[in-house]
């Protein structure tokens, strides 16, 4: 695994000759294998003019019908049978099986569409009858009430301009039947008509205002709310509605009312003036509703049975269609050889996987009984292959962190191998707390132990992110436990595991410590609670951050040597690597040595120890001169002057050496007549563009290969050499490195700052909550303990674990991307994306 992660795998460009009659099963087998990234040999051909566009359109239509059926199944809440994961990688389907599947989908789609249409029609009719039932019931009540206002309505002289809403006197209440007959007769004699219907409740206020203004108040209107919820058959939403009845003079006013009703979305229903006829209509409506309800229930049951049949095979059908569609999309990238009746494909694959591909091709030939097998040729090329790192479930998370910055160039040193250790370690330096590390480790351990069950859960994007990085979180938790032990910090409290090495004596009102022996592991617990604990931890963690930073950057610079040797750029070792590492170590490497030396030296009075910050500053301001109070060792002034001189020499070394040697090499090649060859062509035996495989497929004089493939060869033009451009590029590189060495070293101080902030926040939470709770006494103590611990736990998880953990994660990410990887990592490659059904199906599920 280390070999695969240190560099990307070796890739080969392969050419496939696939007989047309077995092209579909062959591509299907390669999709199941997932080791080939096919190249598009028809980049200039429109997508609608490719060979298999009709097959793709057909599969698109099948996919559309599957989506429609899936939507209907979810809408009807019919359970879908989950498909066994082993069926994802079944054999390819024949054309006859695809035809049969298409016919079945057409039948199911047609039946469901027909039942949906029938249900929509029946629901609309059921809605109309339901509304009519309410209209008949409410209008009967309206007419019963109308008799009380007969005298009000007839109080005028029956002129057309009589105001219908004019106030009237108090009326006596006659017998119901007589009152109704009297009211209906009065309305007829008054030449009054009425309109009854149903309108959504939300539009009722607007409806009243429009009617009043349009008819100038010449109407009498009453309405009532429908208590029964009414479901819209189109949207399947519950709509609140009101029944209304409007009385007015003359046919013109009634026609105007009906137009207003239509514009407002109201439904008008015919209601007879005679009470006997209304009662008969109501009974008839009730009977028709009962019959219609039986028909609706029967239709719904049949539709559910039909959808249940589809749900049994929905996932398997969807998988088949997605695979077939991917197969034909891939085949559209191939060339067709008319003479050989074969498809010609080209693609990249790992060199180690060629035997597996050939074995898969032989299996297709044997299974289909084809007389002509597919042929695989391995070719040489000057094209840059894609980058492929073979990872597992443990390393994939760390590799994705690196790939988020940029995919490694082909065969470039991959930071992912080192990120497995350095990333969680730098996170733990900022997050170090034994108790918090236990929480993080327990959470990650739960995800790892239950990963088979949890990987099927769909709990949102945040959960997917946490679960995908479960092994990263696990290592971060383990390293946090380790650094917590080093800091001797558990929820801001110290652990006295081995007995303190300090003895305390009281002098006046203060206690002073006297060191007797060194604590076995980590920070002595005596420092916790002391007055000068911040001074100690600040100095300790700040210097530790500088040491880790210089080591991390120096390691990144040293990795350049691996790239230079592998790519045969040994000149860069002397013109780039040596001046960079000497420049960094002569300043900041020297600072690290001073830190360790000061730690290892006993100072009777710590306040008299020289300050390293002043030492570094005056190393530049006054080289060769050191005050007595800043002296650490004999000969310090001379050594610092020498190191400063070496650092300054490295700047022109980086700036001029590489352009000078490149210019001399270019002039030498020009004198020998090799000006057309570049560095890569001189060192690469494939620069001529020859291909190898069965037979000699050398490019012809016009640049085309003797095969029908699409092989690209190196151009034979002269290389352009511009000394000024190289000089500017090297100047930018030199300035960036020199300034970056200072700023990047300072950037590692975030290790100290975040570690200090995390410890202080933890101490504040404990002191303000649990500290106050533990001071309580009496009967309130148990309740306070429960409430205080709950509050402390919630704030610890929310602030210290989640928010502080995310902050430390982002800072560790920045240290790797900016401070570490830019020392050696180009990140200019292209990721290997093979044609694999597993990836395609996983993407469509998301």
From TrEMBL:
UniProt xrefs under Pfam families: V_ATPase_I
Coiled coil: 52-132
Residue ranges of the region described as Disordered: 688-710
GO BP annotations listed: vacuolar acidification
Protein origin, superkingdom: Eukaryota
Record has Chaperone as a keyword: no
InterPro entries named in the record: V-ATPase_116kDa_su, V-type_ATPase_116kDa_su_euka
Membrane topology according to the record: Multi-pass membrane protein
Keyword Mitochondrion found: no
Keywords, in A-Z order: Coiled coil, Hydrogen ion transport, Ion transport, Membrane, Transmembrane, Transmembrane helix, Transport
Localization per record: Membrane
One of the record's GO cellular component terms: vacuolar proton-transporting V-type ATPase, V0 domain
Transmembrane feature ranges: 425-448, 469-487, 544-566, 578-600, 637-656, 791-813
GO molecular function: ATPase binding; proton-transporting ATPase activity, rotational mechanism
Family (UniProt): Belongs to the V-ATPase 116 kDa subunit family.
Function (record text): Essential component of the vacuolar proton pump (V-ATPase), a multimeric enzyme that catalyzes the translocation of protons across the membranes. Required for assembly and activity of the V-ATPase.
Protein name: V-type proton ATPase subunit a
Source species of the chain: Powellomyces hirtus
